[in-house]
Amino acid sequence: MSSSPTAPFDSPQPAGDTPDRSGVKKRPLRVALLGNPNTGKSTLFNRLTGIHQQTANYPRVTFEHHVGSFSIGEQAVELIDLPGMYSMTPRSPEEVVSINVLLGEGAVESDPDVIVCVADANNLERSLFLVSQILDLQRPTVLAVNMLDVAERNGISVNLKELAKQLGIEVVGLEAHRGVGLEDLKRQLLAAVNQPPKIPHNPFSEDWNQRIEQVAELISPCFKRGPLVEQADRESTESINAATIAAESNAESAYHRFTAIRLLFDTEGLLDQQFQNQKDGKILNQLDRVRKSLNQDGILLAEAESELRYAWINRSLESVIEVAAAELDKTNLSLRIDRWLTHPIVGLLVALIVMVVVFQGVFLIAEPASDLIEGIKAILAGVVSTVLAEGPLHSLLIDGLISGVGGVLVFLPQILLLFLFLAILEDSGYLARAAFLMDRYLSKLGLSGITLFPLLSSFACAIPGILSSRVIANPKERMITILIAPLMSCSAR
Description:
alpha/beta, two-stranded antiparallel ribbon, single chain, 56% helix, 9 strands, globular, disordered N terminus, 20 helices, 10% strand
């Protein structure tokens, strides 16, 4: 397989050394840990590895990754903590890194033996979107449902056994911050080695399955044959276990189907761009014809995948989640509020009022603190003037140090207050709704709603605004945001 971190379309390599008769691998068991941001993934990583972890950079990229080690009996385990991601549709370099690791590209010796998906019990529906895409690979997978205690306090009950039955994989309940469920997770990690999901994962209708198979047939000439299959062609079958060859063939077929799904739905994703840079032009033309025929039927591919997967998720969770009546009332209230906050007219008025209140509050509240700093600066200057006579040292302390540093500190209360208000808006969830609302207007400038936060931050200081623009996946959009950010009217300017 190619070692390039930007070429994930070669056939996957075999998982590596097989266990001996005792079930213990000759090398460390490689486990990839992934999930949505804020699901407690890092807490689980720290709990499992303790002090036995290190930070390094992926080859040829600047993003750091964490690798830790621990033992399950006599079996050594290497745990790779991947950057948080919401889907297998990479829109940022960090997400590309995660996918490359999952497919055994560059960052590790080969693809992981087991994938552990961490889900938030409070937002299981959202977490299962990524799990659904991972299951397309038909790889050994364990689902760790974290923060069960928080879900219980919120009136949410999760039937883990029923969820495992629906998904066809092992499901473990966790309270990672308290260390609850870790031993059960370790047992399931060993049990999952070389064990793909018990039931084939297929969230698509019959019509979509036909289209996926059509794309898989189109791109199949682009793949290498699996290494074990090639070896079986050259040598007698006595030297290779027939079951191993069959497992390799099934893994390769699942990988082809996974790639076909991603190419069909990710029309502007980074993986699609990589495929176009590497593969045959005739195949790409045929792939474009398939996509255009769907577009002519009025089908938006990106939305179609979300609708299909969430429909499958809702069906799967019908008998899995029970929500208390009080929590349902809160959810219904939240939905009603959302309808007003995202309304094209009322929502815009609310956003305008919120911004006026925030910025007026920043200046009004920060004014006394700024005046206090100005007063302290004047007092210090007076003290220095009484102690030192006119001269180079006097000028350095008063004009350089006191006036220079004081001139910067006088804006510090405004900057701190603005970031405090932005943090409150973000934690309350309003900022995400404002970004959704502003997307339709910012799109006319070649931007999207996600640029709202960097631009708002730039009112305090353009430097953190520019730094926060790294969350924008589109390079062109990111560059426009960086160029606009210094034009925001910050207090210092």
